[in-house]
Structures are given as structure tokens and as C-alpha cells.
Amino acid sequence: MTDTIPVPRRFDIKKVPAFLLHPRQGVQRLAVEEKSTWQMPMLVVNLFFLIRTIVTGYLQMRVSNLGQASLPPDWQWWTPDMQNNYMQAIQATQGPVFVYIIPAVMGLAKIWLGWLILGGLLHLASTLLGGRGSMRSVLSLTGWAMLPFALRDLLRILYMLIVHHPIASPGLSGFGGFLFLSKVLAGVDLFIIWFGILLVMGLRVLDNLPVGKAIADVVIVLLIILLVQGGLGALSTSLGGMMITRPFF
């Protein structure tokens, strides 16, 4: 009788809390698996994003019906014309398409594009620093390392359900001294630090990078992403008076 080697299931929900609670074992598991394993974590991240989008849209419509429009965190830097355009746009975009469908489609596109771009930049930087990993392994690592953002969405959902109001100032955006800095800090919180730590742990194992090079790889790539997002967010706000650009994370 020959023993059959069990094939790991691609969609095993038990691996999600196991990776968050025991990331070292999770990274070691990624190192020995031959196939891409990003499907499960990306499914979880997308699912919680969609739930947050639904809750946010419902609360936005509820607040609008009560005549209490939520103002952007950088409202004080807008010109009077921009503020007037924003209030007119709020009144004209209260239908389900603008509240649910468009944010969901744009958000999902940014999650997937962010995953691909971030994974590609991490792999490129790792290769330049002497890493020996593959694009497949880095994409799997990036997907699993994004799980803290699903937890962040869960906490945001619970918070909004408790206070019955959408979140107006994500991350550290309230500490920004001007528009560009506010947009950059909107993507900075404890969860992106957690995300970065998981990436460093994974690059050390999967790409055989020393800890210093792994940290440099992650810090440089995340800084580039945050600066680009801050620039696009500030540009879109200045041009249109509406925040149509959101962080990948």
C-alpha cells in the first residue's frame, strides 16, 4: 500500500487566523508550498472591503437623509468654490450607483492593482538587493500579508455600527499640516506597520534576504506607494474638489 500525500486546500479558512496568530509558521508554510496561495487571503480582504463599503454607503445615505453631510478631513484647506462644488456633488450623488457600486468597483480595482504593483516592486527591489525568490512567492506573501487590512476593515465596520456615522479621517490624516501630508498620513496606521513586519519576515525566508536588506526593501517600496497616493489624492482634491483617490490599503 502506498501512502498518499495530502494536497493542501487552496481555500482553507483556518489558515487565515493561523497566519495572523503564528506568522513565522505561516511564512514557513509559504516557503514549502509549490503553488500560488494568494487566493484565500485576497478573498478575505475583498470580502471585508465589500462589507465595509456597504455599511459606509448605508450610513452615508442615512446621514444625508438627516441633513448632516460628512465633511472631508481636509475641508479647511478647500476654497469656497471647491466647498460649494462638493456640497452640490453630495446632493447629486446619493443614489445607489454612487453610494455602493462605484466605490465598490473602484475599491476592488485598487486592491487588486495595489497587490500586483506592490508585489512587483517588492520583487524588483529584492532582486536588486540579491534576493533569490520568485514573483509567484512574493505575490503569495503580499496577499497573506494584507490580512491585517481585513481585520482593520472589520474594526471599522464595528466602529461605524456603534457610532452610526462613517469614518471621516482614516489613519493619521488628522495630523497633516497641509493637503499633501494629510493624504500621505491617511494611509499610515498600526495595520500598515503590521503589514510591513509580515513582509519583512516573508522576504527573509522566501528570498533569503538579510534582515537589513529586507527592511530596506519594504520601507522603500511602502514609502514610494504612500508618496504616490498622497500626490494623487492631493491632485484630485485640488482639481475636482472631490476625493476620488483612496489608498490601496
SSE blueprint and pairings:
Elements: H1 15-21, H2 23-32, H3 39-65, H4 80-92, H5 96-128, H6 135-145, H7 147-163, H8 179-185, H9 190-206, H10 211-240
> What is the distance, rounded to the nearest whole angstrom, between the alpha carbons of the first and last residues?
50 Å
What percent of the residues sit in helical stretches (DSSP H or I)?
Answer: 55-70%
Beta percentage is under 5%
Mean pLDDT: 83
Tally of DSSP helical segments: 10
Main beta-sheet annotation = none
Can you put this structure into words, describing what you see?
The N and C termini lie far apart (50 Å). The chain is mainly α. The protein has helices at residues 15-21, 23-32, 39-65, 80-92, 96-128, 135-145, 147-163, 179-185, 190-206, 211-240. The longest helix has 33 residues, at 96-128. It has a domain at 37-63 and 108-249.
